[in-house]
Design goal:
eight-stranded mixed β-sheet, globular
């Protein structure tokens, strides 16, 4: 296998910048791409991303707004929002060499097509090797060098292992897997469930309700994942249960924070105007639709989708869950 020496990070948000620093710390040559030329120039000059205040961009990281300059790499980290993955991947297609690993770092499902992130990469970049990186991680923690562990999955075990070694440092541990779908489903579903957890906190329903919500939400995630053939160890691992625990319990999570505002009485139109993207907003409806089509019972996810789509208010959504028939736990 060709040495994975040069890493391109496409997307200069907080997470992209944190991952660029990690790759540089691992001894790789790193190019960080932003679609905004002025933003890329500011990063090059100031060496600090305003989305990660107080964190210096590592000296070995080069910045660019030219996609072709970033495309000349041995592996690509695609760190743009889930709904933008197709646009960036399509633009990258004419420039990318054959058999280059392209690692999706977004947690979501594409609306309209209902495609998972590695499927979008396969659609747009048939010459690439799709992979996915996901797990319990906040950009600020990773950027500050706080201990973090995530999962990286590719279809080939040797490649997933090589990528994990390429990007891993002592404070950023990557466990490798070949269960692409399981890793993707964990990341996508937990964002929707984190909105529900935030609503519970915002409504001050108590710690018992929060624990119940997280536990039953995890049962939904598992049912959905298993319907796609996801492995049990993946769903109960870092990219499933681990990420769910993190995002359902911290206001650092954009999805939890969105739910918190909704539960506190902020109108839906105003709850997401802080400039921070909550991926679960876009994933909720497609997740609920896919679950319904497969006959997978996901009442919490369906209630979140109904709230975000304006079909239920918060109180009605809570009532719909509290009045469900009693049943055995299994």
């Amino acid at each position: 296998m060709t040495a994975l020496r040069r890493i391109a990070v496409l997307g200069a948000g907080a997470w992209g910048t944190a991952l660029a620093n990690i790759a540089a710390r691992a001894g790789r040559e790193v190019t960080l791409w932003s679609r905004d030329a002025a933003f890329a120039a500011g990063l090059a000059q100031n060496r600090e991303n305003p989305r990660l205040p107080g964190i210096r961009l590592a000296d070995p990281v080069a910045t660019t707004a030219t996609l072709a300059a970033a495309a000349d790499a041995d592996a690509v980290l695609l760190v743009v929002p889930a709904q933008a993955v197709r646009t960036v991947a399509t633009a990258l297609a004419p420039m990318l060499r054959n058999r280059i690993p392209v690692i999706a770092c977004a947690k979501g499902i594409e609306r309209g097509t209902r495609r998972f992130m590695t499927e979008v990469i396969a659609d747009c970049l048939p010459q690439a090797v799709p992979a996915i990186l996901s797990g319990p991680s906040f950009a600020a923690d990773v950027a500050r060098g706080l201990p973090t562990a995530v999962t990286l999955a590719a279809g080939d075990d040797a490649l997933s292992s090589a990528l994990a070694r390429t990007l891993g440092v002592p404070t950023f541990r990557l466990y490798h897997s070949t269960d692409l779908r399981g890793v993707e489903i964990g990341g996508a579903a937990k964002n929707v469930l984190a909105i529900a957890a935030g609503i519970v906190h915002g409504r001050k329903l108590g710690a018992s309700a929060a624990a119940a919500l997280t536990t039953r939400g995890f049962a939904e995630l598992v049912r959905f994942g298993r319907s796609f053939g996801a492995r049990w160890e993946t769903l109960t691992g870092l990219s499933g249960l681990g990420d769910l625990i993190l995002t359902c319990a911290s206001a650092q999570s954009r999805n939890f924070s969105l739910g918190l505002r909704l539960g506190s009485g902020v109108a839906l139109a105003d709850a997401h105007r802080d400039g921070k993207l909550a991926e679960g907003m876009f994933t909720a409806s497609v997740l609920a639709e896919m679950a319904s089509e497969r006959g997978v019972d996901m009442p919490i996810s369906a209630a979140v989708a109904a709230v975000l789509d304006g079909r239920l208010n918060i109180d009605a959504a809570i009532d719909s869950l509290l009045t469900r028939p009693f049943r055995a736990e299994h």
